[in-house]
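[agent] plan:
  1. take the single chain provided in the ticket
  2. run structure prediction with default settings
  3. attach structure tokens to the ticket
  4. add a short note for the reviewer (M.T.)
[agent] executing step 1
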Amino acid sequence: MTARSRRSWTAADYDSEQILLELGHRDAAARVTRVRRAHPIRHTLRTLRRPKPRPQRPVIDWDAARRAADAVTRGDLDEATRIVDATDCPRDTAFAAFRFIDPVDVLDAA
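[agent] step 2 finished; step 3 output follows
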């Protein structure tokens, strides 16, 4: 094994070589070098298995969320539902509306 082939070795590679030597392998350095070689098929498979990028988060209509929260505070749940359903992302807008709801006001209205 030449010094040139060990030039890019890490501490873990030297540790692996020592372990292989202790286990009785005469070609420990060659085995470590062979494992460090590029594996184009393995790299291709890894790139194919990469997760797809997540879609962008929907834009919340904060004005609609505030109007829906006001409707909930007044006790008009049907109006709040209509406001939220008219947005591009009803689920996130409805969730955002909870930021504007004051629980004390809702209890007073009930």
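[agent] step 4 note for reviewer: The chain is about 60% helix and 0% strand.
[agent] ticket updated
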